[in-house]
Amino acid sequence: MAAEVLGYSKGIFFFPFLSFQLSARGHWSTWPAFASGQTILRNHKPCCTPEERQSDNKQALLTIPKPQYLEQLESYLRKELQSLDLTKKNSQELKLQPYREIFEFFIDNFKTYKPLLSAIKNEYEVTLAHQKKTIRALEPLKAMITTVSEECTQQILALQEKEKDEINTLKQEKQHLLKFIDNMKEEKSSLQTQVEHLQRSIAEEYARYLNEYGARKLLLAKLNDMHNEHLDMTRRRAQDVKGEDVVKLTLALKVARQDLTKMQVKLNTMIADYGDVVPRRDFESLEKKYSDLLQEMKTLQKDFDRLHKEYETLLEIHRQTAEERDNFCTELQRVQHNCTPRPNWAKCSEVIPGGAERWGCLAAGKTSEQLVDVLLEEIGTGALKEINVFPGWGKGDDVPVYLRHEGEVKNKKLTKQDVVNILKDVWKEKIALEQQTGKRSSLPEFFLSYLQKKYGDAAAIEWSYTLYENMRLCRSNHVLSSFYDILTGKVGEEQYHGQNRLISNLRKELAARDSSHGGALTSERFSTAVREAFPLKRNTSIQELVDASRYELDSTEDLINYVSLFKEDEEGNAAPFIAKLRSQYVREKQEYLRQLKNKLGDLTEVKTDDLKTAFHMINPDIDDQTLDTYIGLAYLARREEPDRGAVPVETALERLLTGDVRRVGPSPREGSTRGFEGE
Predict the structure, then answer these.
(1) Do 322 and 163 contact (CB within 8 A), yes or no?
(2) How far is CA 489 from CA 388, 485, 495, in A?
(3) Pairing of strands 559-560, 521-522
(4) Considering only 177-186, 253-262, 558-567, 617-626, which range has the smallest mean pLDDT?
(5) pLDDT for res 69
């Protein structure tokens, strides 16, 4: 068997990398197997310990010379191991390579055992490859989980800090308002006491004047009686003394009595009309004082009502804040249970083409989740360049019209810049055609017709498949991702045009504020222009846009070059200002639909009238045309079509989320608390 395994019995035996000579006996040495079996049996003691047995074996082996065959193998292994740089990252794989070569040598030369040794080697290689594949598959997942956990932890800590400050501020405002309400109640009680005191004083004065009026009437009656008695006595005395004519005296007495009666009636009328009248000066003084007190009481009542409403609003905000705090605490506990360390993203620069400089440009200003998308995009685009053909999707009805093809399709291997330029040209041609015809066309059909018109029917499918795969992989690029979402029906085309209109209106507003036409505005004028362009945005959103516009400015600079905010790079990536504006658009739409869902309550299905009522409740200023557009989007029906019955609430909200749905006018609660929030 030694001759079969180890080669020819005489001469020199050559291997691919070693050369060995035959021993003096004419056959290969099988050291230490050629040693006497009796010696081995003699040295083997069943009752001895393993340590003693091992030491005896070593002594026996040392007495036997090592064959040249084994010495050359060990020498080769030592040289290979010494030539390796074990400080590298893959040192273990490099160290394994010499052992693998020696093992392959054994497999090639031991013909009898070659199938068994090959099977053993293959099984180990398959197992190692499987373990490496599993490790590579788990590493991105581990990094992603680490990133998400750390990001959630930071967000929760930031929210806790922000919530703590807001709660302290609200508590201070609540204490201030409670003190203010107590002061107002004390002032109201004091004013009420003064009014009651004045009412009692007026009643006493009125009673006193009424008594004087009665006393005057009695006194006048007594005076009249005394005067008449005095006249009768005087007349009788005159008649007795002079003896005048009785008829003449009687006539004079009658005339005098008539005059007296007239005067008495006139006097009584004057007393009755003006007996209870107070002096004008006192009346005017009391009237002025009363009007001042009444006006002050009305003002205090209005202030009290306003403070009461604001107090109820603060209570509602406090309740919502408490609920959010509880939810965040629960989320914090869940995230803390699953949190992992943050990955070192700088390692990605070692595998990304372009090195650290390009990775720094790609990772600038991005969150961990966005960095994962960028990394996947780089991996996907790199793999896409290695693909020469794409498998066709077939010609079924469920296949999009621009991908209907059987067989293989050639990969055009376009760059991201080429794809961006083509998609921008598609939008330009489509908008021009719609303005010319006045009709809205389907993007998938126009996309295919555009490629056929520009590249021919035969090459259109190749361009379509290449563009589609690039759009599917490049999710971090807005031009590619938005076109892909609209092309596949995930988002409505109106949303794309709505965002472009918002950006265009803002650009016009900024240009109108630039009186010098220099392309720059101060921070104050820039903030004012943004408020004019977006009157419904909150102060925090306006501040976010202002901060995003200053990402390239020093803290000491006050001029903002608004023209540069709307520029794009070669691959269609916009500045952080436009990215923030688009993210606010999506966030505001989600908040608007969340309020709509809250108004619908526990309904599982919604009808047209219920949906209209909910829209009017959260947005009273919405017009009929906009409302009909939203209803048609929710029910996938045109305005002239009849009601199609109820649809699930989740389905209606998903359809509204794909369209250009925005708030028209301020919300009801925002209109009453906007000034307070601004303070």
Answers:
(1) no
(2) 28, 6, 12
(3) antiparallel
(4) 558-567
(5) 65
